[in-house]
């Protein structure tokens, strides 16, 4: 639980900062700090030598810094800093209160649905390239929530998208992160290489699977000597849930 308190403190602070910027108190728009904007701007930058729409060099710098972070520590950004990941986790916890044992999507269905995030990434890049506008803003929960349904959102369509994402997260924690987040899709190949990861001592493990139950991404930690899984956020929930002392630990290895 201790690491969860630390993590939630950090997530609350970052979410508060985004709200502060979204209310117009900062010198820049909150959009200037969106790392996915760094990906969206690449195409326009290479093609026309300029950033698309509201994007700028800060988006690109953040994106590069995050890719370095992912190589160092997998998708830590998603578990320790992203407000949308935070909301996805909280919704999953609230939804979890309704189930004695939460229904989990089967491996094949879960794997198939994860392909959607690559489709979202492709759509975001193609539309931004073709129009020079951030056409998918109206479907992006980060933008819709923190802009308060601002410029470029789509009224009831944006609201419906938010409702679907929220209801999805009540059943499957991190619903948006798992299936729809294009930033997660960009991180995937780098996350597999992530140096800092969870290691399991096979000899001391009782294979009780408490770690898997605690994992917001349903990663089968109890079957792995090292958690190389692309979706691991190093959130440490598995480590905290393990009833055996010292079986799981955070380690730095290739
Ligand atoms: S919770 Fe700990 S003891 Fe149980 S399966 Fe996971 S690593 Fe092994
Ligand atoms: S495997 Fe452990 S550290 Fe990784 S996401 Fe799951 S609970 Fe978090």
Written description of the protein model:
This protein has 254 residues and is mainly alpha-helical. The protein folds into two domains: 2-190, no CATH class; 196-252, Alpha-Beta Plaits, CATH 3.30.70.20. It is 56% helix and 4% strand. The chain is built from 13 helices and two strands. It has helices at residues 2-22, 36-48, 57-73, 76-80, 83-96, 107-114, 116-131, 141-146, 156-171, 175-179, 182-193, 210-214, 237-241, and strands spanning 196-200, 248-252. Strands 1-2 form a two-stranded antiparallel ribbon. Helix 2 packs across helix 3 and helix 2 packs across helix 7 (116-131). The two termini are 28 Å apart. 37% of the residues are buried. The mean pLDDT is 90. Bound molecules: iron/sulfur cluster (2 copies).
Topology:
Blueprint lengths: L1 H21 L13 H13 L8 H17 L2 H5 L2 H14 L10 H8 L1 H16 L9 H6 L9 H16 L3 H5 L2 H12 L2 E5 L9 H5 L22 H5 L6 E5 L2
Antiparallel strand pairs: 1-2
Bound molecules: iron/sulfur cluster (SF4) (2 copies).
One iron/sulfur cluster (SF4) binds next to helix 13.
The string of secondary-structure elements, in order, is HHHHHHHHHHHEHHE
Q: Estimate the strand proportion.
A: under 5%
- In total, the number of domains comes to 2
- Could you name the ranges where pLDDT drops below 50 across 5 or more consecutive residues? none
**Widest β-sheet, arrangement of strands:** 1-2
Distance between the termini: 28 Å
- Biggest sheet architecture: 2 strands, antiparallel
Q: What oligomeric arrangement do these chains adopt? A: single chain
Radius of gyration: 19 Å
The number of helical runs is 13
Mean pLDDT, as a whole number? 90
Ions, cofactors and other ligands present here are: iron/sulfur cluster
> Helix/strand/pairing class, anyone?
mainly alpha
> How much helix, percentage-wise, in residues?
55-70%
Number of strands: 2
């Amino acid at each position: 639980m201790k690491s969860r308190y630390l993590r939630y403190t950090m997530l609350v602070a970052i979410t508060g900062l985004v709200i502060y910027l979204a209310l117009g108190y900062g010198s820049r728009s909150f959009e200037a700090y969106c790392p996915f904007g760094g990906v969206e701007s690449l195409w326009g930058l290479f093609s026309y030598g300029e950033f698309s729409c509201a994007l700028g060099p800060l988006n690109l710098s953040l994106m590069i810094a995050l890719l370095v972070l992912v190589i160092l520590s997998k998708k830590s950004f998603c578990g320790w800093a992203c407000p949308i990941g935070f909301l996805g986790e909280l919704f999953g916890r609230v939804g979890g209160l309704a189930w004695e044992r939460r229904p989990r999507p089967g491996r094949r269905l879960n794997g198939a649905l994860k392909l959607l995030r690559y489709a979202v990434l492709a759509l975001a890049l193609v539309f931004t390239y073709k129009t020079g506008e951030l056409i998918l803003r109206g479907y992006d929960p980060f933008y819709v929530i923190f802009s308060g349904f601002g410029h470029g959102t789509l009224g009831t369509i944006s609201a419906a998208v938010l409702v679907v994402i929220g209801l999805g997260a009540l059943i499957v924690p991190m619903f948006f992160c798992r299936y729809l987040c294009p930033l997660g899709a960009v991180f995937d190949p780098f996350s597999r290489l992530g140096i800092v990861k969870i290691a399991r001592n096979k000899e001391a493990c009782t294979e009780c699977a408490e770690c898997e139950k605690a994992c917001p991404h349903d990663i089968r930690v109890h079957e792995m000597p090292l958690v190389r899984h692309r979706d691991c956020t190093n959130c440490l929930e598995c480590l905290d849930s393990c009833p055996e002392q010292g079986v799981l630990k955070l380690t730095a290895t290739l």
